[in-house]
Structure prediction request, 522 residues.
Amino acid sequence: MSADLLLTLTPTEQQDLETIEESGLFDADFYLSVHQDVAGSKIDPLIHYVKYGFREGRQPNRNFRPASYLRQYPDADAGNRNPFIHFLKTHGGCHIAHHGLLPRFHLEDLSIGARTLEQLPFFTPDLYHDINRDIERTTTDMAEHALLYGVPEGRRIFGALHVSRTLGALCAAKGLDDADYMVADGAVPDGIGVYYNSNGNVFIHEIASDLCTTLRESGLNCVLLDETGNPDDRPELCIFVAPHEFFHLGQGQDWATGAIIRDAIMFNTEQPQTLWFERGIPFLLMAAGVIDICHQMAESFRQAGLPAIHFTPNVGTERNYLQKGDMQHAMVRILPPACRRHPDRHTPFADRQLDISFFGGLSAHREKFFACNAGFFAQFRNYFYYRKFTTPIDSSPRDNPLSRLASHVAGHSRIALNIHRDDYGFFEWHRIVKGAMANGSVVVSEPCLPHPVFRPNVHFLEESGRHIPNLIEWLLNTPDGQAKAEDVRLAAMRAIDTPAHNRARCARIRGFISHVWSTPEA
Prediction:
């Protein structure tokens, strides 16, 4: 006679067993591996859990921790009842049974976020555990821990080498065509709010402004807003630009609730190797959809099951050049007199006042490049803004003119230099397109991840850091080089300014918003 037959279940226990069986959330292999005494007893693990295990505080799976659940729901064991049954009846369909360090989100949202993180190509449970060896591997779901504890605690959740390999694979992936989101005459929200954080990076404000303008050009009712507004008065659809900034700075924290996030679209501008990107992960994974300024990143979110699109806003005809009040800024006073006037972006390559310009923050990768090539650059008329940033480039008097200064200087420069901040060759849209190409400067860059619109040697010039000085010397000092530079400059401006291209971008983003808005889960 088997041990199971010796156990008599009460009607309540039998009902509990059927409820748990129907849920599919009891993990028999996990239960036996953790509880060796049960494995040796030959009792069916589910029967043991229903009869004895829950009273002994045992876990039915990696995700349900009875003690944590009871702290949040003290009445869940009223009458000596099984708290797992309370969880299944109250939060049916959830995999996660506690909020961790994200108490303002619903369990349903957190469950979706953790399962989506599992599918994100940048994440692997084994690697997360290797990075964070203090986590108990046997009884912990790594994706759940990364979402509920890892990100809020500031842990690293992606490994650098794996990020690099994944980006390489994403470059080779065919992926979904953005046309899959084109919805002819689809429903759109009556009002859209594009949000940025007023305490954040001034360049993010620019991207949000350009996105808002593009949505208006798409025929959508859109307004540019920031974190100081009342969340209860938000428009029908919210698009949060740079969630890694928005929800962490100042009053942006008031917006970090499940009720807001699940119906919103996130516009990601950050790169996956950074801690900033990891800080934005909960909001990206639990949103209704993601817009990404990087083609490969959009593909990664699609592979994780999220509606996602690569999109770069149209660059308007108005240029954000220096204003009268900027002329006393220390970084403006050092400009040659001829470069203090408003530039004409149509000025040919050969007639520009400055040879090379660069704007960026200090990094080990850049430090090595500039130290090795200081003597070479000393031959030319340059404007390099290169400093260590400890806080965002914000709207303070010190930093506010920097965005205008970067555009202004590029408008006077033959070459705008793009040196990556690290070994990841991201195509930084704002630095390359908005800041340089749109102002008539020729971009010379280290190799970038492929872009679906802007191509190396057509719209910008690409070379390894070691050989960039050779390329610059050819461009500046030879007739052939100057002719090539002018061809590239004009091709880039055509790609930015062509009305047909702008209309296509408008149609694509409108289609995506309609797709997300029309999906019941959104």
